[in-house]
Each structure stands twice: as C-alpha cells, then as structure tokens.
Amino acid sequence: MSASPAPQNGSGQQQQQGTDQIHFKFCRECSNLLYPKEDRATNSLVFACRTCHVAEPATSYCVFQNKLHSQVGDTAGVTQDIGNDPTVGLPLCLLCGELISCDSCGDFAEYMAWNRPSQQKQS
Predict the structure, then answer these.
(1) What is the DSSP letter of 86?
(2) In terms of pTM, does the model score above 0.70?
(3) Which pLDDT belongs to residue 70?
(4) Which stretches does UniProt call biased (Low complexity) (predicted)?
(5) 3-state class percentages of the chain: helix first, strand second, coil last, to nearest 5
(6) Helix, strand, or coil here: 83?
(7) Distance separating alpha carbons of residues 54 and 28, to the nearest angstrom
C-alpha cells in the first residue's frame, strides 16, 4: 500500500474518496497542522494555519467523521494470563512487608489459588 493517494479520474470518485477518509494537512511554511476554517468573504471552506495564518482551499468538504462499529476492537485491561506473568509478585503488606493472608482460613490470599491451579484450595 502506497503512502500517497492514487489520482482520481472523475469528480464523482474524488467526492466519494473525500468522504471515506480524512487526511491531515500541514502548513507549507511552518509545518504545523492546518485547521478547517470558513472564509467569510467567499463563503467557502479553507484550511488555515493557526501559527502563520497561511490558508489553502479545501479539496474535501469532510472535516469530521464518526464511524460506529458494532464490535469492540480493543480489549484494554483484560489480563487473562496474569497467573503466568513472572513480573507479578506476591501480595505484600505495604506497612510491614509480610505476605497478606486470609482472615478466616489463613491461606495466602487468592493469589495462591490462581497462581498454582494444580493445588486445590481446602475449605
């Protein structure tokens, strides 16, 4: 896949391509991001630099695109293999540094149960 877009033959294809994907534009003078702005004199859309105020006419009229998906792509925060993670240590008390154990049975928290699945927790 190339980094630059392919040239379009028809204006209908160019209008369709403009609504499919939004490209970031950068100032030719200072290389800052160009922001969409209305040119009130001509009542048209331009992309202008906020730093040096250079403006260029818009090639596409799409300035915002909200795509809604029915499935979630990322599962941030899901740690199903944390029991096999060698960097996770034993649960220690922050005050005394001793292992934290259960108040009712004296077992070392739930860490021992899910860290060693071969051993059965006794009730």
Answers:
(1) T
(2) no
(3) 62
(4) 8-20
(5) 15, 15, 70
(6) helix
(7) 8
Spans of all domains in the chain: 11-57, 88-123
DSSP structure class, residue 92: B
* Res. 90: pLDDT tops 50: yes
- The per-residue pLDDT for range 12-47, each reduced to its tens digit, is 444 444 445 677 889 999 999 999 999 999 999 999
Strand partners, 34: 49
Q: Which residues contact 56 (CB under 8 A, 6 or more apart)?
A: 25, 28, 34, 46, 47
Structure tokens of 30?
A: 């200072």
11-57 CATH, one of 1.10.260.40, 3.40.50.300, 3.40.50.720, 2.20.25.10: 2.20.25.10
